């Protein structure tokens, strides 16, 4: 059986440049759709967060506008409720070992920019995944978690030169948050040496596969990146 570890942010807010706390969490679609696809494939999925704190879902992602329709918003809320027991008892990131898993997957939302971007334990998991050639999937704002993936023996970012995508600056501008952010995902990835690409139009699905690294640009990429991982692993 294929074993998947989904690492979720435990943040409830994102601190903006002026110190304002912007309410956030995990983006529902980016967790629920990959979780569905992985479990429908017969894979076993575990969930982990920093300190084992139950994740919070961004309320916007559960609204009609954020989910894409009232029907999808209702469906997402129902699916989260059905997974209540799983979500309330996540593993602690510092207590998991990458060798126990075939796939390491990070959903987005602004939450990872608050906690996973500076979480050394999560960063080490990613380093271990890269060094062991474990499948690594990362969505939307979750490439923020990649920023913490530094090789402790050399200090180097282990993903330098790799092809990837993530939430685009133009998309953050359309969210009216780019000029209020301390930093932006696209900008930081490029600064660190990633070979970044994005869809021609904001919020269009776009995935990049570079070896065992699978990245999706935005919520619309959630299904495509998860389905590609399943197709390649089967």
UniProtKB/TrEMBL annotation:
The keyword Cytoplasm does not apply. One of its GO terms (cellular component) is cytoplasm. The keyword Cell wall biogenesis/degradation does not apply. SUPFAM superfamilies: Class I glutamine amidotransferase-like (SSF52317). Pfam families: DJ-1_PfpI (PF01965). Keywords: Hydrolase, Lyase, Protease, Stress response. One of its GO terms (biological process) is methylglyoxal catabolic process to D-lactate via S-lactoyl-glutathione. Residues 29-231 form the DJ-1/PfpI domain. GO terms for molecular function: glyoxalase III activity; peptidase activity. Belongs to the peptidase C56 family. HSP31-like subfamily. This is Intracellular protease/amidase. It comes from Salinibacterium xinjiangense.
